[in-house]
Amino acid sequence: MRKWIVPGVLLLAMVSLAWWRYGRGVSPAPPSAPKNSSQASSKAFGQTKENEVSKPASSPDDMVFIPGGSFSMGTDRAWETLCDVPGSTVDATPIHPVHVDPFWMDEHEVTNGEFEAFVKATGYVTIAEQTPTAEEFPGAPAEALVAGSVVFKPTSQPVPLDNHFQWWTYVKGANWRQPDGPGSKAEDNVPVVHVAWEDADAYARWAGKRLPTEAEWEFAARGGLSGMLYAWGDQLKMNGRFMCNSYQGKFPVSDTGEDGYVSAAPVKRYPANGYGLYDMAGNVWEWCSDWYDFDYYKTFLAGNVAHNPTGPTRSFDPSEPGVMKKVHRGGSFLCTDQYCSRYMNGTRGKGDWRTGTNHVGFRCVKDYTP
């Protein structure tokens, strides 16, 4: 049963269902602070040491072999200077040693076409397509209890970045088939969105796969590199070329689309990383299997290598205590150093596990058996 927590004081009776159902997935940003634009770097990252394992001669369709190994996971506190909003990377510290076994990973995010095949085969209905009930949302006005999801809507003018409800709107009828609401259509080769964690998990199980752990996801995203800001290196652009789908322009007013897109892009439109994985930064956030805990990385302060960590046993976000959240990784087309720079390696996102939006998708992994 879905269970949602209303903010501290009861909202106005006619508040939209976005506040009741989906407002839990994105936390308000703290007041902005000046940014130091100088490149952040750290000596705290150890070298990545891949497992000594031969690459298999064949692979599952559209999956890439990830050798696994030992690496430094997380971010340097100095990376805080790369975003106008303070506090966005604190939950990804301290840097700590981790070891993961070899595995297979989808080379790109699961697409609408792939998700449609799953739905046709199983008759699965996503959470966004289900009509919420009064039992699930006590006190919500009856007219607000309609199936739908949250969609990013640009503001008409610059606004303070301390209230995310200014650019997120609950749209009746928005779901993976209609990502912007009624009248819109999902393109086959674009990542599926408006999927909650359990929707992604259901697909993964059907496909004979699973969702990646946060450690597996980060190891794969780094592509064999150590301590780099991005999946390809330390510069956002390489030789003047955008390397991922992110936000250019004034957030949240206008994305100028200098990278070629102003919303989710078709998969494989940007260069792959060192392991042959596409869109490990930007485009859409990706669900991981781990519960989210703000202080989880402090578990590793003793310095011992964590082997195949699967995350905490419970979820805790101090900004929204009691709301069960799973980890997001990779950032999205809305990432910008003005507000959210978490397309950087090692940084973390999180969302209510029963929530989907139009910038959250997923990819799967599969265990490797020699």
Structure report:
The chain is mainly beta. The chain has a domain at 45-114 and 192-367: paralog of FGE (formylglycine-generating enzyme) (Alpha-Beta Complex), CATH 3.90.1580.10. The protein contains four helices and 17 strands. It has helices at residues 17-22, 112-122, 197-206, 214-222, and strands at residues 49-50, 63-66, 69-73, 96-100, 103-106, 148-152, 168-172, 237-238, 241-242, 249-250, 254-255, 285-291, 306-307, 325-329, 349-352, 360-361, 365-367. Strands 1-3-4-13 form a four-stranded mixed sheet, with helices on one face. A four-stranded mixed sheet has the order 15-14-12-16. A hairpin with a 3-residue loop joins strand 10 and strand 11 (254-255). It is globular and about 60 Å long. The chain starts with 16 loop residues before the first helix and ends with a strand. Residues 1-41 have low confidence and may be disordered.
What is the compact description of this entry?
The chain has four helices and 17 strands.
Which SSEs are present, and which pair or pack?
Elements: H1 17-22, E1 49-50, E2 63-66, E3 69-73, E4 96-100, E5 103-106, H2 112-122, E6 148-152, E7 168-172, H3 197-206, H4 214-222, E8 237-238, E9 241-242, E10 249-250, E11 254-255, E12 285-291, E13 306-307, E14 325-329, E15 349-352, E16 360-361, E17 365-367
Parallel strand pairs: 4-13, 12-16
Antiparallel strand pairs: 1-3, 2-5, 3-4, 5-17, 6-7, 8-9, 10-11, 12-14, 14-15
Low-confidence spans:
1-41
> CATH homologous superfamily of the domain at 45-114 and 192-367, by name?
paralog of FGE (formylglycine-generating enzyme)
CATH architecture of the domain at 45-114 and 192-367: Alpha-Beta Complex
The first-to-last residue Cα distance is 40 Å
The top-level CATH class of the domain at 45-114 and 192-367 is: Alpha Beta
Helix % is under 10%
